[in-house]
Each structure stands twice: as structure tokens, then as C-alpha cells.
Amino acid sequence: MFLLWAVGKSRATPPSGLLGPEELPAVEAHRVIRQMTRQLPAALQRQDTAQIRQLHWWVGRAWGGLNRPEKAAWHYRKALGLSQDGSEASAWLEWLLGRALLSQGDTGQARQAYRLAYSIFQRRRHVRGQGQVLEQLGDLFGRMGHWNQAQKSYEQALAAWQLTHDKARAAHALNLLGTAHREQRHYFRAQYYLQKSLSWAQQQPDSALVSEALTGIGSVHQSLRNAEAAAPYFKRALQTLPHHAPPHKRAAALASLGIAYDSLGNAALAVQYFRTALQPARQAGSYVLLSQLYNSLSKLYRGQGQWQEALAALARYTELQDSAYAEQHLAQVAELQTRFETEKKEKEIQLLTKERQLQQAHLRRQTVVRNLLLLGTALLLLMVVVLYRAQRRQQHTNRLLRQKNTAINRQKEELDRLNRTKDTLFSIISHDLRGPLTSLHSLLALLKLGRLPADRLASHSERLTRMLDGTLHLLDNLLNWSAAQLKSGGSVRPERIRLEELVQETVALFQGDAERKGIRLRSETPDWCPALADINMVRLVLRNLLSNALKFTQPGGQVHISLMARTNCWEITVQDTGVGIDAAGQARLAEPSNYFSTPGTAREKGTGLGLPLCREFVHRNGGEFWFRSQWGAGSSFHFTLPIMPGETDSFKPDQLAYISAAAE
């Protein structure tokens, strides 16, 4: 009955619940989709615009509850097309569309939808709607890391809820304001707003408000490294969390307790909470949260000596890494593409506006000249005055034109830079990936015909394998280079690593290539080399440097990789006896943004992305990168990584003596 009543309403009005027109719960969403889609054909046949709009509204909310923002956005756009411009219904639909777009990672379009909704609510003096939009704008700025702007939006939302005397929403806004101050490390202000939020939330019947306020206070204590004070708040937050709360909130609350008890040294209790959090995390479908939980469990098991459990947790963490990586970076790639398209359109609009302004200035000049010609013979004195004013206007117009031309040149340079980046990607994909795929297609065609002798099949297979290995290496570099261009992506995750194990792993990986080329590959490392760095970035740097050394070394040559302790850091050196780099090549390699490559001694191809990527990843991990080379006498590439703090106690006496000698 409730669903039929909602569909029959002619005007879209938001529910009176705490969060306005929220997405429907998953249990109710399936039923809504089934019923509404059955009624949609009849409404379309009757051309009942009000009911069609209402059906799209509810189906969009149902898809939002099922975490399908792309389908929800489609229905919201359909409903908007049937809504009157500037109406309250269109404002709520813009607000819902902004939420769906934000869930897809499209912050640019979401921000535009929120601003349109806010302007409508402002014109209609709808304070409640303004508060809703301001809260969502704060969430958008927080997601982008602009916490100062998020704080201002939350403050304006709080003022709106105080005007409407809605203490439940005001308590929620206070909690958001405390979170914004915590992210800016204003811990005392954050504590003040969160305590006030807790006080107001305890006066409301909704225990979810109390739970989020307690969670916020615990997070402030955790940020201050006071886990002993944080744990009770997290426990109270979990106890007050309603049973109908979303699974991701329950999983996050349990994970917070696990982190707190881990900080307190209570590993057994931390393991218990992390394991309990796995089930709601699976229900929420968050690969990122699941991978973090398994990673934490693996470390705790390893610390307790439970090696079998640690290995199982680590295996699950490794399995989830690809899914978590995709979940984290798909939104970032979509946002980057949207930003590029938005900026491109904005620049086109600016160019059209400038062209229209130039045309208008030209018309004004023609009008002045015509008037001067008509009045020139009779009014000589007036003509002089008019000419003087025209000259002054011309000077002003020229100044404006110069300024605008300067701005256009700057925009042109930026567009040229973006086009060069695009051309680099397209040329690599079209040139370096087409060859191996064409060879693979040809080999498969020969196999299909059945006319390929066994010896030629083995020869072709070996050559194709080498070509595909190079292509996989190219794809690794290309993907990592693209992630490095995102700035916000490719974040460093430092952890305790064993450098000597990574070196041996890389040497074993390339031993076969070295033997095929007749090159002696050897390594020299101490027995214990703990460092603090991102393990995946270090692996990439070692693979690129060792691959380049083998690539530019003649058969019979030698490649040597060594690891030595310096003051507070490890120095890794990859040295070869290859062809070396001439002066021009060294100058080009010194430019961080310069990508170029030369064929190897066996005509191996490259993209030029490897060394800039190595330099970038080493710097991000707090190290230094340099090289020395002489044409015809080989090259040596060096980089440093910080020693793991507190690990020098486990060094051998000869290692400590070497570090002391290096410091002197």
C-alpha cells in the first residue's frame, strides 16, 4: 500500500526521515524495482507525465540502495527531463543525481548538480534543502582532500539546521564538522564539536547518531596515538550501532576496535575484532576493506608466531589486491577523464566568448568611424574630441586584447602538453603492442592450417615468448607511469621490507635472460637488509634497472648488482660493462619529463618510461637516484632507500662498524 500511495502522488516530496530522500534499503529495493517497472509501460501508454516521473524517481532510489549508481543516475536524469525547471522536485532530483555521480567518482559533474540544486533551493527559500546540499558538498570536498572547503560547507549546513530547529540533523552536521577539523589536525576543535554532537545526539531517538559521534571521538584519540582512551569510545559506538545499520559501518566500527587493541598490544583481542569484521565487510562488497582486514590479520598472526594462519591471511590479501586496486583506481580514472573533458569544454567556451568579444569590439570601432565620417565636415571641433576619445578607447581595447592573447597562449601551451601526453600513450599502444599481437595472430593462423613444422614452431614460440615478455614489461611501465600522472593516485605505502630478498628475487627473474644472451649476472648483498619502503615500487625499480643493464650489455659481458649500508640508508647499485651512454644521452636522461629510448645490443626495443618511473618512485620513497656512465665503458645506476627505524639493533658488528665508518 505504501508503494502504491508513493507512485500515485502527483508531486515529488522528500520523506521526513533524518537524511531526506535517501536510497532505499536493499531488501525493499528489489520489490520496488519489480513493481515500478511493471507499472511503467501502462504509464507511458497513458502519457501520464507525473506518474512516469514518480516511477523513475523511485526506481532510481532503489538502484541507489543496491549500490548501482550508474543505473540510479540514468533514472534520475529521466525524471529530471519530465520535471518543471526550477521546481522543488527538480532540486531534489539534482541532489540525488549529484550523489549518484559522486558514487561513480565523477566529482566534477556531481559538484555541478549540487550547485544547481542549491540555487533552486535558495530561490525557493527552502532551508532544509539548502542544508542537505551543503552537507553533500562538504562530503565532496572532503573526498577531494579539500578539508578547509569542506569545513565551510559543514558550518553553513549547521546554520541551516539550527534555523529549522532540527537537532538530529544539527548533531550529524556537528559530527561532520568535527571530522573536518580532525583531518586538518585541529584536534581540540574537533573534540569540542564531537562532544557537542554526542550531547545533542543523546537527546534523539536515533542511536545511529550517538554511534557516529562516539566513533568520531575515538578517532580523535586514535589520531593523538592515545589508543587506551580511543578503545572505550569505539566499543560504545559498536554497542549503540543499530542492528539495521549498513554492513560497511559495522565492519568499520569493528576494524577501529581491532586497530585500537593492536596499538595497546592486545593482539588476541585485535584478531578477534578483525575476524568479526570480515563478515559485514563481505556483505558490503568492499574489496579495499577486506584486503586491509586480511593484511592486518596476517601481521598479527606473524607477530604471534602463527605462521600457518598468517600465510592463509596473506594469501587472501594477495587475492584481493587486484580487486581492491581496481575499486580504488577506477573512480580516479573516471574522474581524470571527466576533468579533462570538462576543462576542454570550458576552454572551448572561453575561446568562443573571446571571439564574440572581438567581433563586438570590431563593430564598435566601425560605428565610431561611420559617425565620424557623417559629422566630420560640419563639426571639426567635435570630430577632434571624438577622435581623441576613440584613440583612448582603442588603447584600452588593445590592452585587453594583449591580455587575452597572453591567456590564450598559456591555454594553448597547456593543451599542447596534454596532447603530447595523449600522443605518447597512443604511439606506445599502437606501435609497441601491435607487433607482438600481430605475430601471435600469424602463429595461431599457421597452427590452424597445420602446416608448421615442429622445429619452426619451437623457434617461433621462443621468439614470441621473448616478445610477449617485453610487452608485459612495457604494460607494467605504462600502467605505473599512467598512475604516477594521476598525482592523487599511486600513493606510497611504506612497510618493512627485506632488500636482500628483493634483490635475489629480481636476479632469479632475469637469470634466464642473462644466460640466453651470454651475460654473467651476479649479486652481492649482506644477510640482513631491512628497509622502510613501498615493496611494489622497489620491485619495479629493480626490474627496470636490471632489464636495462642486460639490454645494453654485449654477450660475454657482466652485470653486477650490489647492496651496501650508508648513514641511515641503503645504497643499491646496478653496474654493467655494456655500451654506456654518450654525453647527449646523459643530458636527456637528466630531464625528469624526457622520455626516449634507444635499441639494445640485440635490437631490443623500449618506451623510455622506465628510468623516469624509477626516479619518481625512488623520490617518493624518500631516496635519491643518480647514475654514472662512460661511452663504451659501461654504466652504473645508484639509488638509496631509508633503513627501517629501530632495526640497527639487529645488525651484525661488521655492519654497524661499516655504517659508523660511512658516517665519519
What does this protein look like?
This protein is of the alpha+beta class and 664 residues long. It has 4 domains: 238 residues, Tetratricopeptide repeat domain (Serine Threonine Protein Phosphatase 5, Tetratricopeptide repeat); 164 residues, Alpha Horseshoe (Serine Threonine Protein Phosphatase 5, Tetratricopeptide repeat), CATH 1.25.40.10; 59 residues; 171 residues, 2-Layer Sandwich (Heat Shock Protein 90), CATH 3.30.565.10. The chain has 24 helices and 7 strands. A 5-stranded mixed sheet has the order 2-4-5-7-6. A two-stranded antiparallel ribbon has the order 1-3. It is globular and about 90 Å long. The termini are far apart.
In short:
With 664 residues, the chain is of the alpha+beta class.
Could you outline the blueprint of secondary structure elements for this entry?
Blueprint: H1 2-8, H2 26-46, H3 49-65, H4 69-81, H5 88-103, H6 107-123, H7 127-143, H8 147-163, H9 167-183, H10 187-201, H11 207-223, H12 227-240, H13 247-263, H14 267-284, H15 287-304, H16 307-375, H17 380-432, H18 434-449, H19 454-485, E1 495-498, H20 499-517, E2 520-524, E3 530-533, H21 535-551, E4 558-566, E5 569-576, H22 583-589, H23 610-620, E6 625-629, E7 635-642, H24 653-663
Parallel strand pairs: 2-4
Antiparallel strand pairs: 1-3, 4-5, 5-7, 6-7
